[in-house]
Design brief:
The protein is α+β, with helices and mostly antiparallel strands. It has seven helices and seven strands, in the order E-E-H-E-E-E-H-H-H-E-E-H-H-H. The C terminus is likely disordered. Bound molecules: iron/sulfur cluster and FE2/S2 (inorganic) cluster.
């Protein structure tokens, strides 16, 4: 794999072909905030909090650093007036869903984001997709999925699979940047899982 030389925040950074800007920045110890990124998962590009400014051949654009591949002579700025302004607005949109999400609080301080800029949304899910993708890509269980489109898009547990697979896994819980995932699981468990007495009866029958 050939080496690529690029510039990030005024520093020369060496990266391997195929790396993203985020990976190159991290390898050089340069911090870029992320929300929907996870090293074990395919890049997704949902939250856009990792936005940076990239100059290629004299053209500057805002790109998602977790998706954008490095290239020769690329000049990247992880903080600029434009980046900070965009990141602040993205944060404010996320805060409309999850104003108290622990994962956002430090960034809220750093970028001076206003929790009340946008009208509050009824869902606490920011649709980062970490739970759905982790369950599919790492656990290969597909116990959670996305449903509906646009403003009605939401995640849901699939009761038939979740009742079988989730009780001794729950590895997705700590990935969720808001409190939504655990709440959704407990709601599904209460409404749609077979009752414990039913399971005991079924297991008892199976063992007989
Ligand atoms: S429930 Fe949590 S982890 Fe899943 S998509 Fe929503 S915010 Fe992301
Ligand atoms: S971390 Fe890049 S789009 Fe979410």
């Amino acid at each position: 794999m050939s080496e690529i030389l690029l510039q990030i925040d005024g520093r020369e950074v060496e990266a391997k072909e195929g790396m993203t800007i985020l990976e190159a920045a991290r390898s050089a110890g340069i911090f870029i905030p992320t929300l929907c990124h996870h090293e074990k998962l395919e890049p997704y590009g949902a939250c856009r909090i990792c936005v940076v400014e990239a100059d290629v051949g004299g053209r500057t654009s805002l790109v998602a650093s977790c998706l954008y591949p490095v290239e020769k002579n690329l000049v990247v700025r992880t903080r600029s007036e434009k980046v900070d302004k965009t990141r602040k607005m993205i944060l404010e949109l996320l805060l409309a869903h999850a104003p108290d999400a622990p994962a956002l609080q430090e960034l809220v301080q750093q970028y001076g984001a206003d929790k009340d800029r946008f009208e509050k949304e009824s869902s606490f899910c920011v649709l980062c997709g970490l739970c759905v993708r982790y369950c599919t890509e790492v656990k290969k269980k597909n116990a959670i999925g996305f449903f509906d489109r646009g403003a009605r898009r939401e995640i849901n547990f699939i009761p038939e699979i979740a009742s079988r697979e989730c009780w001794n896994c729950k590895e997705c819980f700590p990935l969720c940047p808001t409190s939504y995932l655990q709440a959704a699981y407990h709601l599904t468990e209460a409404l749609a899982f077979p009752s414990p007495s039913f399971l005991i009866r079924v297991r008892g029958t199976g063992n007989a």
